[in-house]
């Protein structure tokens, strides 16, 4: 009941917007005890952001990654603090390494020819989990924990609205997934 909540806008498809947001937040000189990275897009057609990166990767992962990097000193100073990265069980259905086992950056921000919306989403969510794990490893000694979570079907969203096949898939899978 004593919490003060203030909304600020941020466009994860623009690294400049992320930077402006972080600067505006820091200028307020307020603590940051919890940061929830929850924005995502799914099933969208291939397109590039103003930063020339594939939009699903940038919005779902890179924008959050950059935001946390810009705010990690504030999080450390606010200790105890927590970062929650909303990911997805779909991360299990992809890989981001090439045949020799090395990270393949071309898989993260693929060309139009190599793009498949479902894989782009899955890869971005795998990146979320790897990032959260590494963030926890690096910042937990400083009082900042990081967790990645799968939201389940507790709350309905229209993330699958871009194509009727995805809507059908979500509708059919819903009874077999965890819910409240």
From TrEMBL:
Q: Which keywords appear in this protein's UniProt record, sorted alphabetically?
A: NADP, Oxidoreductase
Q: Which GO terms describe its molecular function?
A: oxidoreductase activity
Name listed for the protein in its UniProt record: WWOX oxidoreductase
* Recorded name of the encoding gene: Wwox
Against Gene3D superfamilies, the record matches this protein to: NAD(P)-binding Rossmann-like Domain
Coiled-coil portions: none
Q: Which Pfam families match?
A: adh_short (PF00106)
| Protein family according to the UniProt entry | Belongs to the short-chain dehydrogenases/reductases (SDR) family.
TM helices/strands, residue ranges: none
PANTHER family with a match to the protein in the record: RETINOL DEHYDROGENASE, WW DOMAIN-CONTAINING OXIDOREDUCTASE
State the source organism's domain of life. Answer: Eukaryota
List the SUPFAM superfamilies hit by this protein, alphabetically.
Answer: NAD(P)-binding Rossmann-fold domains (SSF51735)
């Amino acid at each position: 009941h004593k919490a003060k909540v203030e909304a600020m806008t941020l466009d994860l498809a623009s690294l400049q917007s992320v930077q402006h947001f972080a600067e505006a937040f820091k200028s307020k000189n307020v603590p940051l005890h919890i940061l929830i990275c929850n924005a995502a897009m799914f099933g969208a057609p291939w397109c590039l952001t103003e930063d020339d990166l594939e939009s699903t990767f940038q919005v779902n992962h890179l924008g959050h990654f950059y935001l946390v990097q810009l705010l990690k000193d504030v999080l450390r100073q606010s200790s105890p603090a927590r970062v929650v990265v909303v990911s997805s069980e779909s991360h299990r259905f992809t890989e981001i390494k090439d045949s020799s086992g090395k990270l393949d950056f071309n898989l993260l921000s693929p060309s139009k020819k190599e793009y498949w919306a479902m894989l782009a989403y899955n890869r971005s969510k795998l990146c979320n989990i790897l990032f959260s794990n590494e963030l926890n490893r690096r910042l937990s000694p400083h009082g900042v924990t990081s967790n990645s979570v799968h939201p389940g079907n507790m709350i309905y969203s229209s993330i699958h609205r871009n194509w009727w096949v995805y809507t059908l898939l979500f509708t059919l899978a819903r009874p077999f997934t965890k819910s409240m």
